[in-house]
Design brief:
The protein is an alpha+beta fold and about 150 residues long. Helix content is about 45%, strand content about 25%. The protein has six helices and five strands. Strands 1-5-4-3-2 form a five-stranded antiparallel β-sheet.
Length: about 150
């Protein structure tokens, strides 16, 4: 029984440290940066691109407080009120998707990756019911989020 428990914990540990895999509609950017540095650089890039950090969440610190060590993991919600007001005017339902989330994950080798769903992917389910400007706003946000990501991973 003990051997089985060790095996399960080892597999869980490997899965917890798996790097983000590419997915349709996502941008995944591995870096050579350590986790904490990438988190800081994401926040700086958000500010430099005139967006705001609206939310932050991650299980790493809470797990550590419980005596559990897991890889760094932080979701950073990013948006700007001018886009919030604009999108709300186009689709009330689409605002459930704001803020757009950037996801910083620590890799097994100590580096970190930045991943996010493209805003055009996030807002795609609302396009048919919204004014055509929703697609324009999503495209603008795609460019802003790519600029944030590229600055953060450099």
């Amino acid at each position: 029984m003990r051997a089985l428990l060790i095996f399960v914990l080892a597999v869980w540990g490997m899965a917890a440290q798996a790097e983000m895999a590419p997915r349709d509609g996502w941008i995944v950017m591995p870096t050579s940066k350590p986790y904490d540095a990438l988190v800081d650089d994401v926040k700086s890039a958000v500010k430099a691109n005139k967006m705001g950090v609206v939310t932050q969440a991650g299980p790493t610190g809470a797990a550590k407080n419980r005596g559990i060590t897991i890889p760094g993991n932080r979701v950073i919600g990013v948006f700007n009120n001018r886009y919030a007001v604009r999108i709300l005017g186009l689709s009330t339902a689409a605002m459930i998707e704001a803020p757009i989330r950037l996801y910083v994950t620590e890799n097994a080798d100590g580096t970190a990756s930045l991943s996010y769903k493209m805003p055009s992917t996030v807002f795609a389910p609302y396009m048919a019911e919204a004014d055509a400007d929703l697609a324009v706003a999503a495209s603008e946000l795609d460019a802003i989020f790519l600029s944030i990501a590229e600055a953060a991973v450099q």
